[in-house]
């Protein structure tokens, strides 16, 4: 009984310690996870598989890029991307296609918006993208989860 | 001994639940990022609409034949906003016409600047300041062959738990001489806003 009372009396200091530590550690925005799966620059018509890059192994387990096709349509490079989910629940994704010219220089950098894509359980879905100008001869693409803050205290 | 653990635990969970008050912080963000601040028409919708319409127009076979050896001249009529929101539809047409112009397949005339052009030509012709041999002449402009026009409509539904908005954007290309609609396409956007019961 004596011991219990002692413990009770020493609590204000523990409180203050906890409070301070929470203030130091907490109240901090954790940057969201923005990595995903994608490719490096692919020249039109080339086999895509050797260009695949996985930056987010967790996402790569739930999703794979099953096909990438490209062709010239009215002088403009058109890309057809097939995504397959291996996860039973809906995946909320975003994808972006970037364009490069013959010399590997970016065509209209920063102007290709992230597009949102809902991939339902085990679904295979195809999305298309068209180069903004005829200069674009190579492309790269990237798929990521909708970035959400893990913890925000 | 029990109390020794319970009180700090309660304190931590209270702090976690109530959260800390955030200081306001200014950051530069990604202009191309998906924006979901609220359910209204936003930057992501504008980018999606502009990109899809431009892509559809550029790869359409009809437009392919129109642009074989020539760059047709287009005039952009306004997009009618039939939604319940205030949306700057000129910003949508600006994005679309800029993308089309940059693709190198079309040329545009800008009806929004006719008054300024007239003023400048009048100054050149009769201001007495410009060399008459170098002054630009009236009546030399090229008339538009096609008109780009469209509608933006929405259906909004909501109950106490969630709200849903559906946008439909229609764009058409009309041959001004024959009155034929040469190309048309529409794109749809659905957005829902609901409550998340467990969220941090």
UniProtKB/TrEMBL annotation, chain B:
Name of the protein this chain belongs to: Penicillin-binding protein activator LpoB
Organism: Colwellia asteriadis
Superkingdom, natural source: Bacteria
Entry-linked InterPro entries: LpoB
Pfam families in UniProt: LpoB
